[in-house]
Amino acid sequence: PEITPDYTTLQGTASKRVKSFVLTKDGSDLEAKQLVWHIIGYLCTVAGALEAAVAGGFCAVLLMYLDGRHFQKQALARWNSAQMQDLQMQSLNILNEFVPLAPGAFIREGGLEVLVAFLLSEVIPNDAVKTSLLQNMFMLCSLPGMQDKFADNGAVEVAIEMLQASTSATIRQDVVLWLAALCDGHKAAQAQGRWKSRAVTRCRLNGL
Fold first, then answer.
1. How far apart, in whole angstroms, are the C-alpha atoms of residue 7 and residue 123?
2. How far apart are the C-alpha atoms of 174 and 97, rounded to whole Å?
3. Would you call 4 helix, strand, or coil by DSSP?
4. Tens of pLDDT, residues 148-199
5. Alpha carbons 101 and 103: distance in angstroms, whole number
6. Looking at residue 10, what is its pLDDT?
7. DSSP letters of 28-82?
8. Whether the model pTM is above 0.70
9. What is the three-class DSSP state of 1?
10. Phi, psi (rounded to 5 degrees) for 143
């Protein structure tokens, strides 16, 4: 008789078996996931569907693909680098539309912290993903209370360091826009920016 392998459990799941979908990774599986995400994202603009998406953990799923703490889980590790990049791009694109509709869900899932950590990580595959991420950061600054949360997470310092380190004109332009949005009318962020700029200047003058 055929024996079904007893796979190790996925952390955080109720079942002691890995779900069958976790073990599939061909092109049709990727397309199916992207289609489902697209449909859910679109339906979030319809009355009642947004609440269902929030209750179903849609925001958490999107953030999982940007959170390095989950990259080794089989549900994510099954994808090759090109597939993972496609999913990360789609996640960012959907979040750009989803978060203004449900900012509370994004905050509860620690979304801002996830995005800042992803921006600081060394696992961003290329500038296309980084550009999409920075566009999300810019959008978030327009939402109530987000400037405060960014300031609390040291985002101004992150932006200035990126501006100094990047050699890409496109990335530098996106960072400038994000930094301007961070500091617009926000005294604490403006003070952080001035402090960071003075510290960098002193280091340069001292040859550091």
1. 28
2. 18
3. coil
4. 888 888 888 888 888 888 888 999 999 999 998 998 888 777 776 664 554 3
5. 6
6. 37
7. HHHHHHHHHHHHHHHHTTSTTHHHHHHHTTHHHHHHHTT-GGGTTSHHHHTS-HH
8. yes
9. coil
10. -90, 145
